[in-house]
């Protein structure tokens, strides 16, 4: 019993900064205090997150082959998991086009980035921003078109995509950048994670309870199959343990809030999607010590 308590307390110490930021957002939403959603969204997606991605990718100590492996494995695991999710939804006679997006894409931003950084350090953050950038680009431009009546967003206007490409090109061409520019990008980018966690807390207070039965099933798909699909792909690719663990952790994240927003806007299954987000988020927080142990995170008390 003592070992189990230590096991969870060790993980709670890792999650504490995340829970604190999300908790403030939760408190803000419950109290209905004034806040501009557009301000936070635009600040994060158009400025802070692109700055974080640019500075991290340009300055990372990971070699180019590792970055390429992370990018390739991200594409492969999303494609493989997406096909598995679609097949399961079809076999369960659920609307594939309406519910696929909320199961296929993990919350790799609000929860994935900070948790991967806390669990795997700078290496984790560097790999996680690549995963997030690819996820964000695919979800917001290409795969949103899967939803009925959705036209998608302009593919090549994504600040996150442009920042990723610029950083990688400058890195590969070894173009030197002034110290003040990188420090400015680092400072602006440092706002991204706290703001995303605050917005996650706010969003959870505004999501209706919806259909918890279907939502719970979708949440189970997201958490279990996401992790299993990542394990299969990383094992098949023969990736190093740390990179495999990072990809597996990202794919085990709860349903993305943005996927719920798209589903609510373009389909009549907002309740099911809302239930999936709420249940998967709560379930992940409860199961996070086990997940971190499975992916090989170096946390005192987990591997002793």
TrEMBL record:
<feature type="transmembrane region" description="Helical">
    <location>
        <begin position="217"/>
        <end position="237"/>
    </location>
</feature>
<feature type="transmembrane region" description="Helical">
    <location>
        <begin position="6"/>
        <end position="27"/>
    </location>
</feature>
<protein>
    <recommendedName>
        <fullName>AEC family transporter</fullName>
    </recommendedName>
</protein>
<dbReference type="GO" id="GO:0016020">
    <property type="term" value="C:membrane"/>
</dbReference>
<feature type="transmembrane region" description="Helical">
    <location>
        <begin position="243"/>
        <end position="262"/>
    </location>
</feature>
<keyword id="KW-1133">Transmembrane helix</keyword>
<feature type="transmembrane region" description="Helical">
    <location>
        <begin position="70"/>
        <end position="92"/>
    </location>
</feature>
<feature type="transmembrane region" description="Helical">
    <location>
        <begin position="185"/>
        <end position="205"/>
    </location>
</feature>
<keyword id="KW-0472">Membrane</keyword>
<dbReference type="Pfam" id="PF03547">
    <property type="entry name" value="Mem_trans"/>
</dbReference>
<feature type="transmembrane region" description="Helical">
    <location>
        <begin position="39"/>
        <end position="58"/>
    </location>
</feature>
<feature type="transmembrane region" description="Helical">
    <location>
        <begin position="274"/>
        <end position="299"/>
    </location>
</feature>
<dbReference type="InterPro" id="IPR004776">
    <property type="entry name" value="Mem_transp_PIN-like"/>
</dbReference>
<dbReference type="GO" id="GO:0055085">
    <property type="term" value="P:transmembrane transport"/>
</dbReference>
<feature type="transmembrane region" description="Helical">
    <location>
        <begin position="155"/>
        <end position="173"/>
    </location>
</feature>
<keyword id="KW-0812">Transmembrane</keyword>
<keyword id="KW-0813">Transport</keyword>
<keyword id="KW-1003">Cell membrane</keyword>
């Amino acid at each position: 019993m003592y070992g189990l308590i230590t096991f969870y307390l060790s993980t709670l110490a890792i999650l504490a900064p995340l829970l604190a930021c999300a908790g403030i957002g939760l408190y803000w939403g419950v109290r209905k205090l004034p806040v501009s959603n557009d301000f936070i969204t635009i600040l994060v997606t158009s400025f802070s997150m692109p700055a974080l991605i640019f500075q991290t990718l340009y300055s990372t100590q990971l070699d180019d082959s590792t970055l390429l492996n992370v990018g390739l494995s991200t594409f492969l695991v999303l494609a493989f998991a997406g096909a598995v999710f679609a097949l399961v939804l079809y076999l369960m006679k659920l609307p594939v086009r309406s519910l696929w997006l909320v199961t296929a894409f993990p919350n790799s931003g609000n929860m994935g980035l900070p948790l991967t950084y806390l669990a795997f350090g700078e290496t984790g953050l560097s790999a996680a921003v690549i995963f997030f950038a690819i996820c964000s680009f695919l979800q917001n431009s290409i795969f949103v078109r899967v939803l009925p009546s959705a036209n998608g967003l302009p593919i090549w206007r994504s600040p996150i995509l442009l920042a990723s490409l610029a950083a990688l090109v400058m890195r590969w061409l070894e173009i030197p950048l002034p110290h003040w520019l990188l420090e400015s990008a680092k400072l602006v980018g440092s706002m991204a994670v706290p703001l995303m966690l605050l917005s996650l807390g706010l969003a959870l207070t505004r999501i209706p309870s919806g259909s918890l039965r279907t939502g719970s099933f979708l949440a189970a798909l997201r958490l279990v199959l996401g992790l299993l699909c990542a394990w299969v792909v990383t094992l098949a690719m023969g990736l190093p343990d740390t990179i495999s663990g990072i990809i597996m952790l990202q794919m085990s994240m709860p349903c993305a809030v943005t996927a719920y927003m798209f589903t609510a806007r373009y389909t009549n299954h907002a309740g099911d999607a809302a239930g999936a987000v709420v249940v998967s988020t709560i379930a992940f927080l409860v199961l996070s010590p086990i997940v971190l142990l499975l992916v090989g995170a170096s946390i005192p008390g987990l591997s002793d």
